[in-house]
Structures are given as C-alpha cells and as structure tokens.
C-alpha cells in the first residue's frame, strides 16, 4: 500500500501546486482553467480558505513517504451539510501516477468525509475519457451511476462526465 497522508493545504504547498499546473493531463481532467491564469494557485488557495472557514469546501495536500514529498491535492469542492452530501476530487503529480497515490488519497478523503463531516453521500465527477480515475473510483468502492452529457467543466470545455457515488452504508 502506498504510504501517503493528507494534511490541510497550506501556503507552503503553493509552489508544488504551481509546478503541477503545467501538466497537460492534470489540466485535461480538472477544472483548472486553460491557459492557467497568472496567480491561479493563490486564487485557488484563497477560495478554499474561505470555504474551509464557512464549511462549504476543503482542500488537502497529499504527502508521500517518510520525506512527505508533495504528491498532489485532494479536495471537497462542494460540501452540503444540509443534504449530507459532498463532492470529492484529487489531482496527482505526474511522477506519482500509477503508484496507488490517487487510490490511497481517495480512501483517506472518503473516510474523512464520512467520519469527520458526517456525510451520507459522496460524489465523484470523472471524464468519460479518464480510465485511470474511473479505476480509482472503482477500487475505492464507488458506484457508477451514469453519464452527465455535455457537462460544463470550465470555460471552453464541455465533456461527457461520469457520476460515481458512495454511500456511508456501502460496504
């Protein structure tokens, strides 16, 4: 099993996040705008800080190994406490892909959302052309519910997007 841990995303993680923003695969399958605007990492961080303060979103740094190398980020971009539902997501640095980092991170995020937030339903939105993330979802016990056709991802990009879910009652 991959040795990772999640810690709340902090200012000291911004440089490593900035390094990831040049990765075409990350840009292809996330909501990061293309081209990446100047100052995007700082704006993203500030948006999550506001969400953390009001309980509507959360972000984490994924740290790998005993040296705690920054391997990516995990997010809850939408937390709806009234509905007890949260959307989860993740982005993994290119060097860390294919090593189980995303799977380990999603397992940790899932556990956090159920135990710390008291969520009943968790959702993942995954591009139909992203078999890697589909495998991560499946390996973490998520169920494919269907496809949102021509879903808005970011300015200039619409794509067919799978919706996966996991319930607190799922085994």
Describe this entry's structure for a reader:
- The chain has 171 residues and is α+β, with helices and mostly antiparallel strands.
- It has a domain at 4-122: Aminopeptidase, CATH 3.40.630.30.
- The protein has helices at 14-20, 24-29, 40-54, 101-115, 131-139; strands spanning 4-8, 58-64, 69-80, 85-92, 121-127, 143-154, 157-167.
- A 7-stranded mixed sheet has the order 1-2-3-4-5-7-6, sandwiched between helices.
- Helix 1 packs across helix 3 (40-54).
Through-space gap between termini: 20 Å
Give the averaged pLDDT, no decimals: 96
Shape: globular
Looking at CATH, the homologous superfamily of one domain is: Gcn5-related N-acetyltransferase (GNAT)
**CATH architectural type of one domain:** 3-Layer(aba) Sandwich
Spatially, the strands of the biggest sheet line up as 1-2-3-4-5-7-6
CATH topology of one domain: Aminopeptidase
CATH class category of one domain = Alpha Beta
Strand pairing plus helix content: what structural class? alpha+beta
Question: Which residues form runs of ≥5 with pLDDT under 50?
Answer: none
The proportion of residues in beta strands is 35-45%
Strand count, sense and barrel status of the largest sheet are: 7 strands, mixed
| Element pattern in H and E | EHHHEEEHEHEE
